UniProtKB/TrEMBL annotation:
Organism (species): Pseudonocardia hispaniensis
UniProt-listed InterPro entries: Homeodomain-like_sf, HTH-type_TetR-like_transc_reg, HTH_TetR, KstR2_TetR_C, Tet_transcr_reg_TetR-rel_C_sf
Domain of life: Bacteria
Keyword Transit peptide: no
Protein name as annotated: TetR/AcrR family transcriptional regulator
Classification via Pfam families: TetR_C_24, TetR_N
Ranges of the DNA-binding region feature: 28-47
Domain HTH tetR-type residue range list: 5-65
Alphabetical UniProt keywords: DNA-binding, Transcription, Transcription regulation
PANTHER family on file: HTH-TYPE TRANSCRIPTIONAL REGULATOR ACRR, HTH-TYPE TRANSCRIPTIONAL REGULATOR RUTR
Presence of the UniProt keyword DNA-binding in the record: yes
Length: 227
């Protein structure tokens, strides 16, 4: 069983990397089978179809991101801290989990209405709802201005969704600076009192540290389950 799980993960990881590099249409079973030294039948045995591999990618990615967001919500006390952490996380994932993040973002709408993608869609909706609830809690507490929480949440996700098209880890601007700018932009427009904005947007501040702690904790939990 352990070998089967390991081979499943190897196939999914390799497909994910190729989708990030080439896009869904550029990847096929032969390409992945050749790299891993397995038959195409082995891939079919584990996944059945290419569409199902894409669905598995979405499900694995969003399961991890949800666990991390839930960790942040528990560990942070205020809506402003929680939203700052979520925004930092949007950008940190472009370094900490780059291949999966790029693969997910460039292909998230593909086959969106197919039954095979239903679980991934449910997980994405849950993630969106949690972020929207953070915004609503900030409005209720008086930390945030009164805004349309749904529209503002869509705008945040839209900003993050296209980062894969222009951000490069090897570029001159570090991801920490990008995250800082995003937090400053979003919370700068939401906060009724900007006194703590610098701390919230600081890449070394408490919310950003909790993001990295969440990533480590979820990763360690996954490793413990698979070992």
């Amino acid at each position: 069983m352990a070998g089967g799980v390991g081979r499943y993960n190897d196939i999914l990881d390799t497909f994910t990397r190729y989708i990030a590099e080439l896009g869904y249409d550029g990847v096929n079973f032969s390409l992945v089978a050749k790299e891993l030294g397995v038959s195409k039948g082995t891939i079919v045995h584990h996944f059945g179809t290419k569409d199902r591999i894409l669905a598995a990618l979405h499900e694995a990615y969003m399961t991890k991101r949800l666990a991390e967001l839930e960790y942040m919500i528990v560990e942070l006390d205020t809506p402003s801290e929680r939203l700052a952490a979520a925004l930092h996380a949007f950008m940190i994932y472009h370094v900490e989990d780059r291949a999966a993040t790029v693969a997910f973002q460039r292909e998230v709408v593909r086959l969106a209405h197919e039954e095979s993608m239903a679980e991934g869609a449910r997980l994405r909706a849950r993630y969106f709802t949690l972020v929207q609830q953070i915004v609503e809690a900030g409005i209720e507490s008086g930390e945030f201005r009164k805004v349309d929480s749904r529209i503002d949440s869509f705008l945040m996700f839209g900003s993050a969704q296209w980062a894969w098209t222009w951000f490069r880890p090897e570029g001159s601007v570090p991801i920490e600076a990008v995250g800082q700018a995003l937090v400053d932009l979003v919370l700068g427009s939401l906060l009724t009192n900007r006194e703590n904005l610098a701390e919230l947007s600081d890449p070394e501040g408490h919310p950003a540290r909790i993001v990295r702690e969440a990533i480590r904790a979820v990763s360690e939990a996954e490793e413990a389950v698979s070992s």
